[in-house]
Amino acid sequence: MAEDSNKPKKKLGFYWVYIILIAFFIGSIVFSGSNSAKQTTMSELMQMLRDQDVDKIELVNGKTAEIYLNDKGMQKYFPGQTNQKFGVSPNYTLSTTEARLYEKVDEAQEGLSNPIEVTPVERHNWGAEIISWILPLLLIVALYVIIIRRMSGGGGSGVGGGQIFSIGKSKAQLYDQEKDNKTTFKDVAGLEEAKEEVMEIVDFLKNPTRYTRLGGKIPKGVLLVGPPGTGKTLLAKSVAGEANVPFFSISGSDFVEMFVGVGASRVRDLFKQAKEKSPCIIFIDEIDAIGRARGKNIMSGGNDERESTLNQLLTEMDGFGTNSGVIVLAATNRADILDKALMRAGRFDRQIYVELPDLNGRREIFEVHMRGLKLGNDVDKEFLAKQTPGFSGADIANVCNEAALIAARKNKESIEKQDFLDAIDRIVGGLEKKNSVITPSEKKVIAFHEAGHATTSWMLEHAHPLVKVTIVPRGKALGAAWYLPDERQITTKEQMYHEMIATLGGRAAEQIIFGQISTGALNDLEKVSKQAHAMVMYYGLDETIGNVSYYDSTGQQEYSFQKPFSEKTAEKIDAEVSKLIESAYQEALRILNEHKDGLTQLAEKLIDKEVIFTDDLVAIFGERPWKQEERTFSKRKKEDENQDYPENTTIA
Ligand code: ADP
Ligand code: ZN
């Protein structure tokens, strides 16, 4: 690249500036300091004048008198030295003021026939003066250059670089699959579902005409959602590797600068580059840095720069056709805080969840990262996977590397089990700060909690049947249960009630087994409370309150400062809500007490395997006696996405 060949020259230029500056400085000191004249006093000068030893007096810049002697004076004061006829340099100097000098010179020569006159001279020390002008200027320029370089990544490699004028250029890194080490699906362990979903993209990039011929549309943007270190970047890279296309990688925070308009211009530049290389993949890490929901609150103002960057991104994504062959993959930890506009059709309309690996996943990740290692005979991947609950793929990669280093430090021939255990200890030490490690006792509580949900929902006719339970931490939740929701259009009171019981099952299980409850059930309580409120206030499902709905479908609640009901009704609502929740909780306790053995078996299985499926429940409890109505299911739903009350309602 042309920019690269410029680089050494630019460096040299910088040194030259320094060298010239220093030379200039030294030079000016040397030349201005060449004046070797002696200092004298006013009385001595007066004496010289009276004796008529002086040839001339110059007053330099109104403050230094320079005295040149004549032949007679030279003989007297510098015997044996030749007179400097042309007054190249003075013989004496004297610091004084203008008025005093004139006065004393006149006084000393009073009565003399041809008195010496003082000649005022303006003299500039050009060197010093120029430096005093240029130095601050240079400093400012240098500071500017440093700031710009900092901001544009300190002259990083690849596209962009550290030039002042490339500030609006994107800083995306380009991996060309032919040159660099190719990443393929082989390098991604686990994540089977995610791989399956991105397979289509690979297919399209390899063979676009097959899809476009039929008029099919391929997603332009795919959002990878999951905690850090779970392999989102790796997955995106492997898509590019499998399809053999270039891969642009950039972080969302790279777009954001303190200069207005820079982010937008970088987005523009990125897409321009990508289109030139099409088909290709753009990977935007941490998209929440620009994609966070735009300020709803007018009062708080909001970040205009981030918004204009986001708008530019949306414009670019709308602008390129589905057939252009540029596919944007973006990663985020939190899809919920992203601007809804990003998720609209034709943008990031697909989401792929990349979660922390379970036991199996961790074993496979160990396998991938042990490929290049020299292992001892006692290394057991299954065992190591069991030792690392809550670890992400990146943590495991770290463990493998750390183990290799530990073994090397001990001068071993191969990496042994103990080295891995030491490495795990070390990583856990670092992780504890991040709070993602679960202690065995916590694991037990979580297992019983999730088993409680699973058992109650299994035993209730109208609760959603369970598909999968894990105790792998995800986001804020410590475990999760997936249900197969039937997409019913109408929910009966009984169905809602059963769901409330199942939701409270986690807390009830903790109560039964440990005799105490933990804070881990916050989500459950929130959900149950909302559901109970909805039943009483919106759906008219409560006898005491009756067939009244306080639901405002116009969504303009925020303009009304008053509740649409009296204080008395409010009290009644509160009472009904707590009654409902309490009776659901008692029911959950009853079910779990009845099936305590099954619950314990289930929890132990969870502790051992971390994930359990419907089959395991059937093995413990037997088939459910109720038959599921025939329906077609479109997708699985996560527990916390199960909302059975109207959307966008705020409950007073
Ligand atoms: P993210 O982008 O989700 O933060 P990365 O893709 O950057 O995570 O993962 C960091 C490193 O962790 C990868 O380079 C890889 O070595 C390792 N890693 C993470 N997940 C996996 C996985 N599923 N299989 C193999 N290695 C993984
Ligand atoms: Zn729960």
**Gap from first CA to last CA:** 63 Å
Share in helix: 40-55%
Mean pLDDT: 77
The structural class is alpha/beta
Give the CATH topology of the largest domain.
Rossmann fold
Radius of gyration: 41 Å
Q: Identify low-pLDDT runs.
A: 1-12, 154-164, 297-301, 630-652
Oligomer: single chain
- How does the overall form come out from the CA principal axes? elongated
Strand tally, please?
15
How many structural units, i.e. domains?
4
| Ligand catalogue | adenosine-5'-diphosphate, zinc ion
The major sheet is characterized as: 6 strands, mixed
Number of helices: 21
User: What is the annotated CATH architecture of the largest domain?
Assistant: 3-Layer(aba) Sandwich
- The CATH top-level class label of the largest domain: Alpha Beta
Relative strand content: 5-15%
Main sheet strand line-up: 6-8-9-10-7-11
CATH superfamily of the largest domain: P-loop containing nucleotide triphosphate hydrolases
